[in-house]
Amino acid sequence: MGGCFSKPKPVEVKIEVVVPEKEKERGKMSPNGMASPVANCKPNGTTKHLCDESLALSAYQNPRDFVEAAVCHVRDLENGQMREVEVGGGKALLIKEHGEYSAISHKCPHYGAPLVKGVLSGGRVRCPWHGACFSIATGDIEDFPGLDSLEKFQVRVEKDKVIIRANKQALQTQKRTRMMSKCTGLSNYSAGVTSVLIIGAGPAGLVCAETLRQEGFGDRIVMCTVDKHQPYDRPKLSKSLESTAEQITLRSKEFFQKYDIELLKEKEVVTVDIKTKTAIFRDGLKMVYKNLLIATGSSPKLLNCKGTDVENVFYLRTPEDANCIAKLANNKNAIVVGASYVGMEVAAYLAEKAHSVSVVSQEDIPFRKALGEKVGRAIMKMFDNNRIKFYMLNEVSEFRGQQGKLKEVVLNSGKVLRADVCIIGTGVSPATSFLKHSGINMDSKGFIPVSKTMQTNVPGVFAAGDVVTFPLALRSNKKVNVPHWQMAHMHGRIAALNMLGQATEINTVPYFWTAMFGKSIRYAGHGEGFDSVIIQGDLDELKFVAFYTKSEEVIAVASMNYDPIVSKVAEVFGSGRTIRKRDVETGDMSWLIGKGTQQL
């Protein structure tokens, strides 16, 4: 599909390239590691090539700001190997592939995972924890989660010694923000007109906006959200309940101002008119757009029982909810309704803080549908060992209060549980009710079907994240909903590229993680409809890998304490190669093992 932008009526827009401060101080790249050129920018959104980054940075190089060190002998690394090396008090990741050396940051910018323990394949490194991928030639992020890219360092060989030259500040920061264009003609726009309107400020919306600017787009971008905060790391709400909104913010207010991405907070769109290309807000504001991205995420499924109006019953939606739950649960009785990922993460977090934690669920085993019975039982046992009480095959029939505050939770079995705080995690549905009469197609569950380019049935209207079903290449282009943090990032990027006419189809491997009691489960693929589970390792010791198969083919993998197996399988999935059931039944995983890594 071609580009969706057209030249606006008499508006003169000037573009300037913004070089982040830390980019100005970076050193010269190695010949095989030049940072990828940012697209040149012409007025009104036509994008091709901006200035070469090396030229933009040449004026800022100061020899005193650099350090270099001989880090190994040329024969110390084989092709396909990585090594974490010391460089002037800092560290870098040295890589050898196809006979050439590269050096990049050694930590993943997302949560700081050591990339030396990740997977090197096809010119990129995949994070061992959450699957983000980075080019070894540029350091640019190529798959998610996370927003920032890696630093790239100069490498040369002299007298059989491998030498790295690096900027001192870059060695400390270990990450960088890619160059972005900036629109300096915003004053020419009326308040109710924008080139791009993004509804939702989660990862899909944020990555869409940043990608547009990274690709040199110079027209107005408006992002709106019902939240009162800057975009934040939502997965941390259930994993770290005491974190404040400021502590989990993804991009600061200053970042949005610097790159002319307008963020309208506490603004709710109530309808979209596709004929006039207008979004109408609850407060009466109308915004005319040329291109629209719908990335509104999910809404919680409400519990239908008596007493839901008592205080201290929560649907975990905001940092304030999380903080309040943590405070109320301290040395008190906490009830979690629903053995979902969110519910179980909250229960695990509260285990050491609350007097008691109980989980109520309609299921008999947590995660049975997603991870299978055996893995679910192993996780349930881990919770049992941490004083979590389960009330399975049960539902809440009533919340009872005293002086308006929660005091008891009554189950349909007749059991009455003492409760000071309750967290409900019984599932979500797409937040798309405002589109019912818009002409934008939705299925019976409220999901928006999109193409591989994230395009809806309406030209110029894209959708991304939890609200969509899209063709998943891994499952023969079956339309699926994948409500993962990583996938929402990629949806946003693909939507932005196609808005710019850079025809790009989504072709990424779903990657998911959950964390409980200091242990993480990694998951890659899409296991919906699996008919068998092949488990290698020891479930009792919580050190295992589980392969999910359907019709003799592996369609997903999960692991605990088995890194980087999930990232390795994700790379195999991404290459298009089929993994057969017989490949994983024997326990011989040599088919996955490469040259490995080294660490000094």
UniProtKB/TrEMBL annotation:
<keyword id="KW-0274">FAD</keyword>
<comment type="similarity">
    <text>Belongs to the FAD-dependent oxidoreductase family.</text>
</comment>
<keyword id="KW-0560">Oxidoreductase</keyword>
<keyword id="KW-0411">Iron-sulfur</keyword>
<dbReference type="Pfam" id="PF14759">
    <property type="entry name" value="Reductase_C"/>
</dbReference>
<dbReference type="InterPro" id="IPR023753">
    <property type="entry name" value="FAD/NAD-binding_dom"/>
</dbReference>
<dbReference type="InterPro" id="IPR028202">
    <property type="entry name" value="Reductase_C"/>
</dbReference>
<keyword id="KW-0408">Iron</keyword>
<keyword id="KW-0479">Metal-binding</keyword>
<dbReference type="InterPro" id="IPR050446">
    <property type="entry name" value="FAD-oxidoreductase/Apoptosis"/>
</dbReference>
<keyword id="KW-0285">Flavoprotein</keyword>
<dbReference type="Pfam" id="PF00355">
    <property type="entry name" value="Rieske"/>
</dbReference>
<dbReference type="InterPro" id="IPR016156">
    <property type="entry name" value="FAD/NAD-linked_Rdtase_dimer_sf"/>
</dbReference>
<feature type="domain" description="Rieske">
    <location>
        <begin position="69"/>
        <end position="164"/>
    </location>
</feature>
<protein>
    <submittedName>
        <fullName>Apoptosis-inducing factor 3-like isoform X2</fullName>
    </submittedName>
</protein>
<dbReference type="Pfam" id="PF07992">
    <property type="entry name" value="Pyr_redox_2"/>
</dbReference>
<keyword id="KW-0001">2Fe-2S</keyword>
<dbReference type="InterPro" id="IPR036922">
    <property type="entry name" value="Rieske_2Fe-2S_sf"/>
</dbReference>
<dbReference type="InterPro" id="IPR017941">
    <property type="entry name" value="Rieske_2Fe-2S"/>
</dbReference>
<dbReference type="InterPro" id="IPR036188">
    <property type="entry name" value="FAD/NAD-bd_sf"/>
</dbReference>
